[in-house]
Write a structure and sequence with these properties.
- The chain is of the alpha+beta class.
- The protein has one domain: Gcn5-related N-acetyltransferase (GNAT) (Aminopeptidase).
- It has five helices and eight strands, in the order ββαααβββαβαββ.
- It has an eight-stranded mixed beta sheet.
- A hairpin with a 6-residue loop joins strand 1 and strand 2.
- The model has no long low-confidence stretch (mean pLDDT about 90).
Length: about 190
């Protein structure tokens, strides 16, 4: 994929994230977590989710993390971000406990959809679907036969609609005492 590839004649462009984008990605993630989860989770559960959510610099380093941008009021803005991983880590940011950053074997292991976030003012406009298409296509081209993800409760409806099936539902108690739910989901890349 080329940077600044036009993905829609109407609105969006995509480019591969660079290390210099880390702060704007972090800002979008924080805004998305704070606003987009309100309809699904309590304030405590949102705080608990932050323990496993955040920027993963290996995705940026690997060139597998995408930024979706648009021009709004004459200014280029970030409206979504997400990507795919060729490493064994299923979810989380640089700070997440239990990471495994070793590379997956595409012939026997799954690729991962990772760290998808949409700006609250741009939800329900196809950004999540666009990010899934980009990640799935890239993983398929890299030789992966299946793809997995670690979904939050708010993300589950999109992934179900896109053919992912639940493999496992893990609930852990966060440091604030609230439950953090991560739903492992899988899909064949055929």
């Amino acid at each position: 994929m080329t940077d600044s590839q036009d993905l829609s004649p109407l609105t969006f462009t995509c480019r591969t994230a660079q290390d210099t984008d880390t702060e704007v990605i972090r800002q979008l993630m924080q805004l998305s977590i704070a606003e987009n989860m309100k309809a699904f989770l309590t304030v405590g559960e949102i705080e608990a989710a932050k323990e496993t959510m955040g920027v993963d610099k290996t995705l940026i380093m690997d060139g597998t993390y995408f930024l979706i941008e648009t021009v709004h009021d004459g200014e280029l803005i970030l409206v979504g971000c997400g990507g795919w991983g060729k490493r064994k880590t299923l979810y989380g940011g640089d700070h997440t406990v239990g990471r495994d950053d070793s590379l997956s074997d595409p012939s026997i292991e799954a690729a991962r959809i990772r760290a998808m976030y949409t700006h609250p003012e741009w939800t329900r406009r196809g950004i999540g679907t666009l990010l899934l298409d980009l990640g799935e296509d890239a993983a398929r081209k890299a030789g992966f036969k299946t793809i997995e993800l670690g979904s939050t409760v708010p993300g589950e409806p999109l992934y179900l609609a896109r053919g992912y099936v639940e493999v496992e539902r893990k609930m852990e108690t966060a440091t604030n005492g609230s439950i953090n739910t991560v739903i492992k989901m899988m899909k064949p890349l055929t």
